[in-house]
Write a structure and sequence with these properties.
This protein has 206 residues and is mainly α. It is 61% helix and 10% strand. It has 2 domains: 5-76, no CATH class; 116-205, no CATH class. The chain contains 9 helices and 5 strands.
């Protein structure tokens, strides 16, 4: 079997390691390259710097992928696509699943999510909740089974489900139009939405 140049170089380095000469050869190579770079001038130096920068960039990208546990970008993209496909279509539910997963694997502290609502005053939070529960913003489902149990500070409370008449974006814009003195982002507005106020799109899968 004919070896490629890369395979020959790899075998050569492995033999040096076995003989205990690998570090010595690295030192000699470093000195040779230093002298070589010092002799470069003009366009030759620019071309070398460009190739070296590209090589370093490629090495860092490969190292980053290796640390993340995937050998190639394609395998990482395939895993992301597969995970995204299994997420709920409802934006609110999708965010909740991702947040819990991030907490489970240790990426996001459970306190990080709580600090979002802590920054809002209780008056603002109550205004948002009241807005969501208005009859012109959401309607209450009449069925006996159309209920949801919510854990409020350790105490379970049963609520009748309400269906949001608008998308989160539309409801957010209506809220800001009615409350110009309140400044908050759409993500925070969505996070404060009561769990018993359900986005209309999520009901299509029933």
């Amino acid at each position: 079997m004919v070896l490629t140049n890369a395979q020959k170089q790899k075998r050569y380095r492995e033999n040096l390691k076995v003989k205990g000469l690998h570090h010595e050869m690295k030192v000699k190579h470093t000195k040779r390259m230093k002298i070589y770079r010092q002799c470069l001038t003009g366009q030759a130096k620019q071309d070398y710097d460009k190739r070296h920068a590209e090589s370093q960039r490629t090495y860092r990208n490969k190292k980053k992928i290796s640390i993340n546990g995937y050998s190639t970008k394609q395998s990482l993209a395939k895993a992301i696509k597969k995970a995204t496909h299994t997420l709920p279509k409802d934006l609110g539910k999708k965010k909740e699943v991702v947040r819990v997963l991030a907490q489970t694997v240790g990426i996001l502290s459970r306190k990080d999510h709580q600090c979002i609502t802590r920054k809002l005053s209780s008056t603002t939070q109550n205004s948002i909740v009241s807005f969501y529960c208005r009859d012109d913003i959401s309607y209450q489902m009449p069925g006996k089974r159309d209920t949801i149990v919510v854990n409020d500070n350790g105490q379970k409370t049963t609520y009748q489900k309400r269906i949001l008449l608008y998308t989160i974006r539309e409801a957010y814009e209506l809220f800001l139009a009615e409350n110009p003195g309140i400044s908050l982002g759409r993500t925070v507005f969505a996070d404060v939405r009561p769990k018993y106020v359900v986005v209309k799109s999520s009901m299509a899968h029933r």
